[in-house]
Amino acid sequence: MKKIVVLMLCSLMATLAFGGGAQDGTGAKEEVYTLRLTTAVTADDPVTVHMQILADELEKKSNGRLKVSVFHSSQLGSTEDTQEQAKVGADIGFLSDPGRFSTIVPEMGIMAGPFLLDDIFQVNKIMETSAYKRWVKELDEKHGIVELSTNWFSGQRHFVTNQPVRTPDDLNGLRIRTMGAPIYIESINAMGGVGTAMPWSEAYQAIQQKVVDGLEAQFSAIDGSRLYEVAKYVSKTGHFHLLNGIAVGSKWFYKLPEDLQILLREEAARVGDMQVRDMVEKRKYYEQVLQENGMTIIEPDVDLFREATRKVYDKLGYKELYDEIRKEIESN
């Protein structure tokens, strides 16, 4: 808690430094707004790379009225830390996912559900639903978070272990690091593991020291964190499509002129589309890199894992919402 308070104070001090000024058409100085984009993944991850593209585009298209910098590898704190900083007014834009937001807007967890999507591009249909619009409105009005877009994609999640995993029985009793929201933990438990929440920054050491028996992650994160140094196997279950979004605090966002608010939303969505396509194109590349670094890629019977997770939607009260979302996804 002390760490979070210190980070909040530092962020608030930085937020006060709006100063400077860009020239408008009359020669008068316009206010300059700072924004720090942050993510837990490494510098060369496609998400971070596209965050930098977003930063550059925002500065360019705002004529310098937005000064944007990018911080990777949890340099500004964990996702939970940066979310709290943003809520109190810090100039932070953080990468988060619907599963994490489900701790404050429970229905949002459905977007992180196991085997919900057949392919990542179906997320655009979810974003058009009245349910999604209701969730982001609640995030803003009740929790002080503005979701600029939810169309970024970190990849499909797979199991990373030191023993082969081909069926749910092979996960029986294994402590598997995952993210801290109920949808993630219950899904891992349903597939046979013991869902264990911890920050991503601690995952490498946790496997190395056998605090956990494995984890679940996307290819780019497995490579970026060099998990091939401490784990032998990747089981390609693809149980989660890890959707992400760029979010900022409402207090900071509504201090912006309306044209900059519109620019932020449009560019976050546009660059998000670019990032998704880039990530999809690099799937085979990352798989090859992991194999070249000594990992064995296992092709399990995915239907067994899918069947094991069906009860998760009932357990978390998502059954009707699941049926509604799947109907929307399958519609033409």
UniProtKB/TrEMBL annotation:
Region forming the signal peptide: 1-19
A GO CC term attached to the entry: outer membrane-bounded periplasmic space
Organism domain of life: Bacteria
Keywords (alphabetical) are:
Signal
Keyword Oxidoreductase attributed? no
GO biological process: what's one of them? Answer: transmembrane transport
Query: Which NCBIfam families does the UniProt entry name for this protein?
Result: TRAP_S1
The name of this protein is C4-dicarboxylate ABC transporter
Q: Which organism is it from?
A: Marispirochaeta aestuarii
